[in-house]
Amino acid sequence: MIIPNFKPFYGQHCETTATGSLLNQLAVELSEPMLFGIGEGLGYIFWNMKIMDFPFIGGRVKPDVLTENICRNLNLDLVVKETSSIKKAWENVKYHLDNAQAVGLKLDCYHLDYFTNKIHFAGHYVAMYGHDEQFAYLVDTDQQGGRTKTTLKSLELARNEKGPMSSRNRSYTINKTNGFAELKTAIRTAIFNNANEYLNPPIKNISYKGIEKTAIEIRKWFKNSKDIKRDFQTTSVLMERAGTGGSIFRNLYRDFLEESANLLKIDGIYEAYMDFTEIAKLWKNVSDLFYKVGETNDEKCIDEASKILLSLSEKERIAMEKLKNAVD
Prior knowledge:
It is built from 11 helices and 8 strands. By secondary structure, the chain is α+β, with helices and mostly antiparallel strands.
C-alpha cells in the first residue's frame, strides 16, 4: 500500500520534515521555520559524559517535544504509540498506511539503507507513506534525498535499536480537531513559551547558561582531547550541516521570527529577528573556528571561539527577553 497523491514535506531538519509531511495530509501547509518556531524548538545543550568520545553541542529542544508542541499550539490531535514488540510495532504502522494515513517514525538512522554515513543516532525521524513486500517508502530530509526507501528489515532494526535518545518503536499520527488554532495565536503562545523556557534553564549546561559554560569547557576539551581533528570537525559539521538548517538551528529561528514579525506587526519580534540575524552569523563563526582548530590544532581558534560564545550567551538572553516581553 502506497498512499496515492501523497505530498511530501521538503526540509532540512528531520523532525520538522517528518511532521510537516503528516501535516501536509491535513492541508496544514507551513514553512519549516514556522513549524520549528511553533514547536518552541530553540534551545541549547552542552552534554558531556565519561562514556562519550567527546561532548555534544545541541541547539534545539529534546527529541519528541518539538512535535508535541506543534500539535498542542495548533490544537491538533497527536497520537503516539510505543511498544517493545516488533510485531505490534509493525501493526501500529501498517494499520494507518492501509487506511491511507502517513505515519511519523522515530528510529536509529544507522540501519537505513540510504544513509552513507553510518553513525548511530536514535533520535532521527522520518515519515512513512507506503510499503510493499520488500520496501518501506519514506520521506527524509533534503540531504538524504527527500522521498526514499529502505528495506522492511532495515526499518525494523532501525526502529527497535536501543541507545541514547531511542524510543520503543515510537510511531505517531496527527489528526485535525474541531478547534484548529488560529496561526497568530499559536505564534504568540509558542514565542512566549520558548522564551520563558529558555530564560529559566533548570541546570547550567542548558540555554544561555549552557553557552556560557561551553565557552569555558571548550578550553578543557581542547587540552584533553585524544583526537582534536575528529572532535572539533565533527562538532562543526553537526552544528552547521547535520539537519540544523545552519548555525545550530539559529537560521531556522531567525526566519521564523521574520515570518512572525510580518504577520503580527509587533516591533519587539522584528527587533529580535534582527538580533538573531547577527546571532546566526556568530554561530557560523564558531563552527568555522571549530573546523579550523581541527585542521591546525591552533589554540588561538579556541580562544576566539570562547570569546564569541560568551558574547552569544548574552545576546541570546537579551533577544529572548525581548520576545517574551513583546508577546506577554
